[in-house]
Amino acid sequence: MQFSQFGEKFTKLSGISELMADLNEGLKNPNAIMLGGGNPAAIPEMVELFQQETQKQLDNGHLLTAMLNYDGPQGHDGFRHALADLFNREYGWTIDADNIALSNGSQSAFFSLFNLLAGEYANGKKKKVLFPLAPEYIGYADGGLAEDQFIAFKPHIDFLDNGLFKYRVDFDALTVSDDVGMICVSRPTNPTGNVLTDEEIIKLDEIAREKDIPLIIDNAYGTPFPHIIFSDVTPFWNENTILCMSLSKLGLPGLRCGIVIANKSIIRALTNIAGIINLAPSGIGPSLMQDWVKSGEILNHSENIIAPYYQDKAKQAVQWLQDAIPAPKLRIHKPEGALFLWLWFENLPVKSAELYEKLKEKGLIIVPGHYFFPGIEDEQWKHQYECIRLNYAQPAEKVKAGIEILKEVINELDW
Ligand SMILES: Cc1ncc(COP(=O)(O)O)c(C=O)c1O
Predict the structure, then answer these.
(1) Residue 190 Cβ contacting ligand 1 at under 6 Å
(2) Domain 72-297 carries which CATH code?
(3) Binding site membership of 290 for ligand 1 (Cβ less than 6 Å)
(4) Could you list the pLDDT tens digit for every one of the 415 residues in the chain?
(5) Domain range annotation of the chain
(6) How far is the CA of 161 from the centre of ligand 1 (A)?
(7) Whose CA is nearest to atom 1 of ligand 1?
(8) Closest ligand 1 atom to 189 CA
(9) CATH class for the region spanning 5-46+301-413
(10) Could you tell me which residues are beta bridge partners of residue 218?
């Protein structure tokens, strides 16, 4: 079958589809150790609370109402009002429900945003999405309808004590040319666990406003929920910021509920797109979580259950990794949030794609790091082939067994 140009572009094997295929394959092999995907942990305390809330919303009829009706294309009214109230009372913002659009997962919102604010324009010009700090989220890489829609900058690397390092935006190198339509960062960052500092965000906001282009902050792991973040940061928003959130990393990826907070003209545009593509986003997640947002419970659970759970797991996994493969062979990005550890094997004698194959042969699935550099054009920059991403949030015995396999394969490579 011959596909259209759109079909050709979106059916060729992309980083994310390869990852999803491997995940499925791994799921079929009961012995595979799956430290590759981005599935959040099923935290027992949270699962219990989700169960109770689902029962409550079933009993009071709200869940059934959501199932029996379409919402508008902007998404569940009550949930959007509750979210606006929560942000206003917590952070003194002055948004209302019309600053918020819901989507079927935040992934689909990124697709709309990348093609709304970048790509080909009526005047023949082409605009790109700029990532000021690569590595960045694999899921952005193929989200543009136009070719070559992304541009990225290499990070500045700070070497820290204890074999850790941290990426920072290299503001000396960062240039935003006129063909950039938006700036985008994930905070905390998937895959590295980096959290851009408040100063970095303020500087990026200044640059974006100077250039009259929006700054997208992907807050999928951030604060105030799900709060998989181990440093003290303030959520950032103004009329030029597009803040994207999700219920997924709270532990509910199956609900497919994304949240976009932006100025009203962006929200109207997203709403129109949603009407065409989806008719309406699902109301199930919003009706389930509405009371938690109204009461603020969503913040308590995020801060008191979710954050400590992930922080303990990250700490434990770092310890196991450092015992197994001490620095300088292995350096780990300082874990500041998200579900991942970003491992850097400086001077690795094979590329990370080959390391991935060797690990897979032994039953360990991780994600090779080279996928996370969308828009980096310097093929010679070897750092991009020396890193892998590991999901530390899987059951402890799996993480430990995975690290043993990693140790064995790395030792065999001997450099
Ligand atoms: C940084 C980041 N942004 C967005 C998403 C998309 O999540 P969802 O579509 O489930 O909201 C993910 C998923 O892993 C992610 O890691």
Answers:
(1) yes
(2) 3.40.640.10
(3) no
(4) 899 999 988 888 766 676 667 666 666 677 889 998 888 999 999 999 999 999 999 999 999 999 999 999 999 999 999 999 999 999 999 999 999 999 999 999 999 999 999 999 999 999 999 999 999 998 898 899 998 899 999 999 999 999 999 999 999 999 999 999 999 999 999 999 999 999 999 999 999 999 999 999 999 999 999 999 998 888 899 999 999 999 999 999 999 999 999 999 999 999 999 999 999 999 999 999 999 999 999 999 999 999 999 999 999 999 999 999 999 999 999 999 999 999 999 999 999 999 999 999 999 999 999 999 989 989 899 999 999 999 999 999 999 999 999 999 999 997 8
(5) 5-46+301-413, 72-297
(6) 31
(7) 190
(8) 1
(9) alpha beta
(10) 186, 244
- Centre of ligand 1 to C-alpha 107, Å, is 6
d(CA 100, CA 227): 20
CB 217 within 8 A of CB 187: yes
Pocket test of ligand 1: the residue of 23, 39, 106 to mutate, having most ligand atoms within 8 Å of its CB, is: 106
User: Is the CB of 106 inside a 6 Å radius of any atom of ligand 1?
Assistant: yes
Closest CA relative to residue 325, chosen from 225, 402, 215: 402
CA distance 323 to 190: 24
* The ligand 1 atom nearest the CA atom of 258: 11
Kindly give, in sequence order, each residue whose CB lies less than 8 Å from that of residue 344, ignoring residues fewer than 6 positions away: 165, 330, 331, 332, 333, 383, 386, 387
386 lines ligand 1 (CB under 6 A): no
